[in-house]
Design brief:
The complex is a heterodimer of chains A (119) and B (282).
Chain A: H1 17-32, H2 36-44, H3 46-53, H4 57-64, H5 68-73, H6 78-87, H7 92-100, H8 104-112
Chain B: E1 3-10, H1 14-21, H2 31-45, E2 51-56, E3 71-74, E4 78-79, E5 94-95, H3 98-110, E6 116-118, H4 125-134, E7 146-151, H5 161-176, E8 183-189, H6 206-218, H7 220-224, H8 228-235, H9 243-250, E9 257-267, E10 270-278
Parallel strand pairs in B: 1-8, 2-7, 2-8, 3-6
Antiparallel strand pairs in B: 1-10, 3-7, 4-5, 9-10
Classes of the chains: A mainly alpha (119), B alpha/beta (282).
Bound molecules: fe (ii) ion (FE2).
Chain lengths: 119, 282
């Protein structure tokens, strides 16, 4: 069961209650990364930090492997996931590329050309 | 007695603030948007309200997912600018108006809107970017005190568009009975069409946005009838933020006069829009 829910919107995540419940611990971890001290703690021992926040094994694996798609599937909110991406120096256009199977450059070019109007 | 003098609807994406903070507003990618803002900013500079109310949502900075208030109001006398991860934006903290907050809280409650209360709140880009769109060079303070009104647009089910519009109407009535100010500005923020995640990331719908820009002025009832699913399908999963424009519109007169509007793609992964309305019809 993924977080894709009806109404019939393929390719669209709807961050609903069950999804938020599933992702709560992981999203709290992401939010903690706003502080410099937390980022240092995280980088010093990523598995330990995930354990401290109570992530599931799947979530820990997704975070350690920077599997952005899996983070969404395991209850991550894009606004929270973005905190981890920012820490890694990655942009929302990079993530857009990951989700759509494009390079960051191609995704940026698609936005500059007026966005993806045909999806 | 207080009176709403204008309503400003605007996108609030962080990149608009970042472009300003980093002096990139003349870059070819950004210039059309910031040039577009010009006439609205000039008019706003000549029409400074005593106090403003800003409708927005937080993005994992001031509040987390432990508690997800559908509608909330800040009652602080000061709101600090949040550090979203790499230092706060170089803009002033926000001075609040607890008197207006408590007046609105009570009147909205009596009118059937049971708001959550924030006694402390750090405000993120959703709040400060619209202030920068209004006032690009605030110096050491924003033009007037500002009261935050928060709407949950991140976690489904968001309030309906109809409920947001009704909240706006109640807000308009509550403002009218406030003795502590004469003039009030209302900001409705977020949008326009965009989607950040999933295979449809990067989705933009210029036809929907054009319809929305016209109807927010001339036929808000039509927008209030849209369902959550309509918004997510037509404006993208994050484009549902546009329901916050309806709170602003509801607080205004049935007939308003458009001062200026702007539409530009892209502002990072979004369609950026601005619409400024004088609350007095021509
Ligand atoms: Fe937003």
């Amino acid at each position: 069961m993924t977080s894709r829910i009806s109404p019939d919107l393929p390719g669209t995540y709807v961050f609903d209650g069950p999804t938020s419940r599933r992702g709560l611990r992981m999203n709290k971890l992401f939010m903690s990364l706003r502080s410099e001290a937390a980022r240092a703690d995280f980088l010093a021992d990523e598995p330990g930090y995930c354990a401290r926040f109570g992530l599931t094994d799947d979530q820990t694996e997704a975070v350690l492997g920077r599997d952005w798609q899996a983070m969404l599937d395991l209850g991550g909110s894009i606004f929270y996931i973005y905190k981890l991406a920012m820490m890694d120096g990655l942009s929302m256009q990079y993530l857009g590329g990951v989700f759509t199977g494009m390079s960051e450059a191609d995704f940026k070019a698609a936005m500059l050309a007026g966005g993806r109007t045909d999806v | 007695m207080s009176e709403v003098i204008w309503g400003l609807a605007t996108s609030h994406v962080p990149s608009i603030g970042a472009a300003m903070d980093r002096g990139m507003t003349a870059d070819p990618v950004w210039a059309p948007l910031f040039e577009g803002y010009g006439p609205a900013r000039e008019w706003l500079a000549d029409n400074k309200p005593d106090v403003a109310i800003l409708i927005y949502n937080d993005h994992a900075n001031g509040i987390d997912l432990d508690i997800v208030p559908t509608f909330a109001i800040g009652t602080a006398d000061r709101y600090e600018v949040a550090d979203e991860g790499f230092g706060r934006r170089p803009v002033p903290d926000v001075i609040g108006s607890p008197e207006l907050s408590f007046h609105l809280l009570q009147n909205l409650m009596d009118d059937g809107f049971d708001l959550t209360v924030f006694q402390e709140l750090d405000v993120d880009h959703g709040f400060t970017v619209p202030l920068s769109v209004w006032t690009p060079d605030p110096g050491d303070k924003w033009p007037c005190p500002v009261v935050p009104l928060l709407v949950n647009v991140i976690q489904y089910p968001q309030p309906t568009a109809a409920r947001c519009y009704a909240l706006g109407k109640a807000l308009g009535r509550a403002i009218a009975s406030f003795e502590g100010a004469r003039t009030v500005g209302i900001l409705g923020t977020g949008g326009m069409s965009h989607q950040l995640a999933g295979a449809r990331a990067g989705f933009i719908n210029p036809e929907f946005d054009a319809m929305f820009l016209d109807a927010i002025e001339n036929d808000p009832e039509k927008l209030a009838a849209l369902t959550r699913e309509d918004f997510i399908r037509e404006a993208g999963s994050e484009g549902i933020e546009l329901i916050m424009w309806l709170v602003m519109r509801g607080a205004m007169n049935a007939e308003v006069r458009k001062v200026h509007s702007v539409y530009h793609v892209p502002a990072s992964n979004t369609a950026a829009g601005l619409a400024l309305f004088d609350n007095q019809p021509a």
